[in-house]
Amino acid sequence: MIVHGANDPRVKQAESDQFVAALMKNHIPVTYIVFPDEGHGPRKPHNTLAMAGFIEEFLHKCLHGDVEPFHLGNLQTFILSILKYF
């Protein structure tokens, strides 16, 4: 799982894009989430809530533990892109 803020001043999104492309090219499962209104790590409440849901879902898929259903609902409008490659 890779989470990136489009306004990150430390790590350019192109670097994350390149990393994700390499994973996909090598058939390695990846979930890639980009928040358009965040910098180096989600800080806004709606983004931290969405990220928590994505992390729980990701861990459930990897570790097969319990998970609470998570629906983006109106949070979808805040997320630039979600790529899931499994």
UniProtKB/TrEMBL annotation:
It comes from the Eukaryota. Residues 1-64 form the Peptidase S9 prolyl oligopeptidase catalytic domain. GO terms for biological process: proteolysis. GO terms for molecular function: serine-type peptidase activity. Gene3D superfamilies: alpha/beta hydrolase (3.40.50.1820). Pfam families: Peptidase_S9. This is Peptidase S9 prolyl oligopeptidase catalytic domain-containing protein. It comes from Meloidogyne enterolobii.
